[in-house]
Amino acid sequence: MAQQSDFFKRLFGFESPEHTAQKAESPTLDEPWRELDWGEKQKNLKYVQEYKPEQDDIRYLRVLLYGPVGAGKSSFINSVSSVLRGRMTIPALASATTSDKSFTKKYETHKFNKGRGRAKTFYPLVFNDFMGLEDGTNRGVHADDIKLALEGHLKEGYEFNQVAPISQDDPGYNPTPSADDRVHVLVCVMSANTPQMNSSVLEKMKSVRETASDLGIPQMAMMTCIDEAYCEIDKDLRTVYKSKYLRKKMKDFSSAVGIPMNCIFPVKNYSEEIDMNDDVDTLILSALMKMVDFGDDFIEKTKSDM
Ligand SMILES: Nc1nc2c(ncn2[C@@H]2O[C@H](COP(=O)(O)OP(=O)(O)OP(=O)(O)O)[C@@H](O)[C@H]2O)c(=O)[nH]1
Ligand SMILES: [Mg+2]
Do 74 and 200 share a domain, yes or no? Predict the structure, then answer.
């Protein structure tokens, strides 16, 4: 077929109508719309592993994940841990099934071990995993709780209350957060496998974003489950930036939540595999490097504002 179409093109100087129609139907573009170097895993891993905030009073760069129930927030934390340690690890409890009720119920900081035994320390990059945003009022996490978390007011282990956001006299409320209790990057997580986002969840997400913008906190987004949503990507992860459907999905998501396209990253979380895979790692690292860069810029900015 390719030979036939080449022949047609050479003969007539343009592509045959059949070939043009076939190209239009194809789920993939000829060229990726975003460049990603699939051979740079080690260099990118080193970049993240060697990152350290410059400011003395900040031990950790803190990333906060939020988004709808079952979007893959906890799975992303597990995936990051696995990528950093070079083997499968599961520090954050992820759900084995998808439901409309959030599986994560507590506010927890996830740190990643560096080294073992006596030499064990932690990477200066930590994640907080939020309970999912659910449809309707008094369901799922309150946007107000996320806002307080952004400023560092939620204590470790705080149990989310679906009926009301935390009050200042709650033992889980931290009235005097330190510089590294606060959030340095806010990441919205969304599954590519969700047909359409619910309007009440979208409203909650917008309100969180507005607060983060008021606080000057950098924001980005990740689209998970790209393997489940698009069979061409499932077969070969390297087609990720050639998928027409995924690009459209990301564009729609970008306009719905107001996060620019260049701050949205598609990822596939480790979910069913038992061994590590370089392509999966490369996509995760691509998002992770931006979290480190954006978070570090914010840390530097707050330092110079003081
Ligand atoms: N195939 C595939 N499955 C995924 C991916 N990310 C997450 N999953 C699956 O989706 C389900 C939900 O993932 P979780 O990580 O628990 O989602 P969550 O956002 O933490 O959910 P809540 O805590 O309930 O709000 C789990 O069964 C995961 O294995 C992905 O990228 N690909
Ligand atoms: Mg979770």
Answer: yes
Tens-digit pLDDT profile for residues 224-264 = 999 998 888 889 999 999 999 999 999 999 998 889 999 99
How many angstroms is it from 83 CA to the middle of ligand 2?
A: 19
- With 0-12 CB in 10 A as exposed, 13-18 as middle and 19+ as buried, what is 68? buried
- The model's pTM: 0.87
Name the domain count of the chain. 2
Residue 74 structural domain: 34-305
How many Å lie between the centroid of ligand 1 and the Cα of residue 276? 17
Q: What is the pLDDT of residues 3-31, one digit of tens each?
A: 566 666 777 777 766 666 665 578 889 99
Phi, psi of 229 (to 5 degrees): -80, -30
Quick one: 128 and 270 in the same domain? yes
Which residues sit with Cβ closer than 5 angstroms to ligand 2, an ion? 73-74, 103-104
Q: Copy the structure tokens of residue 6.
A: 């080449």
